[in-house]
């Protein structure tokens, strides 16, 4: 019976190592995706701010053109 227990323990240890490896890989993948989403969110915020600035400049320019006529 001792041989069967040893085989089972080795098999379980192998499965646990495999699971831990898969879990580490998935954790890394999720961390990368999270970082990419954070970067995308920051880029979208920067773009929105730039668009608001351009719109404000266009309004000033258009009001200056209308006043010049």
Summarize the structure.
The chain has one helix spanning about 1-69.
Task: Tell me what the structure shows.
It is a single chain. By secondary structure, the protein is an all-alpha fold. The chain has one helix at 2-68. The longest helix is centred in the middle third of the chain and has 67 residues, at 2-68. The chain is rod-shaped, with a radius of gyration of 30 Å. The model has no long low-confidence stretch (mean pLDDT 94).
- How far the N terminus sits from the C terminus, by CA atoms, comes to 101 Å
Task: Please state the structural category.
Answer: mainly alpha
Model regions low in confidence, pLDDT < 50 over at least 5 residues: none
Q: Secondary-structure element order, as H and E? A: H
Helix share, percent: over 70%
User: Averaging pLDDT over every residue, what do you get?
Assistant: 94
Q: Main sheet?
A: none
Query: Nearest-angstrom radius of gyration?
Result: 30 Å
Number of helices: 1
Show the helix and strand layout.
Elements: H1 2-68
Key descriptive features of the protein:
single chain, 69 residues, mainly alpha
């Amino acid at each position: 019976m001792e041989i069967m227990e040893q085989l089972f323990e080795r098999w379980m240890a192998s499965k646990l190592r495999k699971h831990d490896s898969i879990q580490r890989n998935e954790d890394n993948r999720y961390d990368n995706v999270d970082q990419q989403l954070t970067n995308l969110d920051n880029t979208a915020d920067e773009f929105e701010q730039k668009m608001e600035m351009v719109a404000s400049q266009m309004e000033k320019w258009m009001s200056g053109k209308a006043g010049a006529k």
